[in-house]
Specification:
about 290 residues, alpha/beta, two-stranded antiparallel ribbon, 11 helices, about 15% strand, globular
Length: about 290
């Protein structure tokens, strides 16, 4: 099937990035969120990021204007019923995602494909709560979406070939690269990345090194572009904790036990850049380690 209209649920960090790249690739976008303020912030961020691409001569001013014109915002899920593909990009909580899909179902066309941008949750389990498990799959973009080239495609146990082919064609049209992952907790990228971040938090928790020494060690000693604690702040500590819990519960292995210090930061509401405090304090001109 040919996809021309895409619905995106969630206008936050991931949702607005997905809307950005899809609109730039020529798709008509319906961007949904429960808050008009969140929608306005999402579109404003898309505008700024597109302008940055114009200033770097990656796209033209006309490309930017056309992309913004293709993005329609709505507070109502039923407006996504006209789309060919829905990408859910809400918070990384299974109950929230299930509720979104249940609310969407009555409004969808029979051919509409449902996907989730989840970074860890079972695609098969999410699909089983819908009326179209064969037209359901994981569509995991990396953050920040306009910059990162990879998209993980995850088939549930019932996902059919037509659905997979249609989603892969979208990735190709976006100019990104797809990696096919099996439906196991956290898939490929986060199965490897999150335990590394969690181990970095344990290294801090046990007093092996400070925030700065841990991050500098990995940047200079392993040639990572960001230190693991800096990266955790960028991703969001609540998201990191949620993924570690999925790994721990789904694989029943103590090596995936979330570090107590990570849990403590999340309980304090220190979630990283989005709350201006995490392993670094971002409220000043220069980020300062909090430990």
């Amino acid at each position: 099937m040919e996809i021309s209209k895409i619905g995106i649920v969630g206008a936050g960090q991931m949702g607005n990035g997905i809307a950005h790249v899809c609109a730039l690739a020529g798709y008509e976008i319906w961007l949904n969120d429960v808050s008009q303020d969140q929608l306005d912030k999402g579109v404003a961020l898309i505008d700024r990021n597109l302008e940055r691409q114009v200033s770097r001569e990656k796209i033209s001013a006309a490309d930017k204007a056309n992309a913004l014109a293709r993005i329609h915002t709505t507070l109502h899920l039923y407006d996504l019923g006209k789309t060919d593909l829905v990408i859910e990009a809400a918070t990384e909580r299974e109950t929230v995602k299930q509720a979104i899909f249940e609310d969407l179902l009555p409004h969808l066309q029979p051919h509409t494909i449902l996907t989730s941008n989840t970074s860890s949750i079972s695609i098969t389990r999410l699909a089983s709560r819908t009326d179209r498990p064969e037209k359901f799959m994981g569509f995991h973009f990396m953050n920040p979406v306009p910059v990162m080239q990879l998209v993980e495609l995850i088939r549930g146990i019932a996902t059919d070939d037509e659905t997979f082919t249609a989603c892969k064609a979208v990735v190709d049209r976006l100019g990104k690269t797809s990696a096919t992952a099996e439906d196991f907790p956290a898939f490929i990228v986060n199965r490897i990345l999150m335990p590394m971040i969690n181990e970095a938090v344990y290294t801090l928790y046990e007093g092996v090194g400070s925030v700065q020494s841990i991050d500098e060690s990995m940047k200079l000693g392993a040639n990572h572009p960001m230190g693991p604690l800096e990266l955790a702040d960028f991703i969001g500590l609540d998201t990191c904790l949620a993924i570690m819990n999925v790994l721990h519960d789904g694989l029943a292995d103590t090596k995936y036990r979330p570090c107590p210090l990570l849990t403590k930061y999340v309980e304090a509401g220190w979630l990283g850049r989005k709350t201006e405090r995490g392993f670094y304090d971002y409220r000043g001109e220069v980020p300062v380690p909090t430990r």
